[in-house]
Amino acid sequence: MWYARKRFTEKLQGGMERDKLGILTNVFYKQREDFAKQQKEQEERFTFSEEVEEIPDIAYIQDGKKEHRLNVYRARKRMQGKLPVIVNVHGGGMVIGTKEFNRYYCAELVKLGILVFSVEYPLIPDCMIYDQFEAVSRAMDKVQTLLETYQGDAEKIYAVADSGGACLLTYVAAMQKCGALAEAARVLSTTLPLRALGLISGMFY
Length: 205
Fold this sequence. Notes:
The chain is of the alpha/beta class. The chain has 6 helices and 6 strands, in the order H-H-E-E-E-H-E-H-E-H-H-E. The chain has a 6-stranded mixed β-sheet with strand order 1-2-4-3-5-6. Helix 3 (103-111) links the parallel strand 3 and strand 4 (115-119).
């Protein structure tokens, strides 16, 4: 399914080039450059908590791409019993953003006794929104396989997201309940049992 979606995306991107939409693409890439500078400035301003362990770049699709990886955040001091889980999907209007940009937010959640997974996904215009649905769904599946390793409670799984990530998360969760929606998007819905969503400034237009 992922390969078929990739071929479909390549076809559409080729059409964009033929339609001379390169100007818009360049705008998106310039936004990414500006965002990278902002992220670097953030790293210089803040100090990551020593109480929190960051386990970076766990692949959820085995293709070697950074955009198909996730980070785990947990307390360095191990706690007894299972931990409630939050999956974080970063924002950025679907065209910018990284899982690392929310690392300080994830660290604060960890201090509240939560196990956190932060997801990266491919960005437009390098993909279509359907590829993003697929990526987030596969990341959720990976989280499900990691719960026992990191003391996650399978009965207390939640997800949070902002901006474009909130839009993606809403659709991914909806696909769990609506097979017709998943089929229309050509996405295999995740089986990760999400109990609730926390959405901030979602792109719902």
